[in-house]
Amino acid sequence: TVIRVLLVDDQTIIRQGLANLLENQSDLQVVADAANGQQAIEQVSALYGTQNQPDVILMDVRMPVVDGVAATKQICADFSEVKILVLTTFDDTEYVQQAMRWGAKGYLLKQTPIQE
Hints:
Blueprint: E1 3-8, H1 12-23, E2 28-34, H2 37-47, E3 56-60, H3 68-78, E4 83-88, H4 93-101, E5 106-109
Parallel strand pairs: 1-2, 1-3, 3-4, 4-5
């Protein structure tokens, strides 16, 4: 079974780097990426019900336009079977706790080793 992933981060180099790392895993497929929470909501809406519907979203929390917390709230409300993991560069407990309250399933620090 392949896990379909949507990458959401406002930094292009982070999105591209994560895509390269994840695509090297036989059981992971990056189906789309987004530069902010609004684009993430639009991507999930567009892909929902298709063969490229994401199973998991790696969601940065601090982004322009719509941040990851607000996007998590809306996506979890509208597309409850899509799982969200919050992605952050530091252990920002307030943002992470808010995202978890709105339905995120966990979080990863960007410094997490690749194997994890």
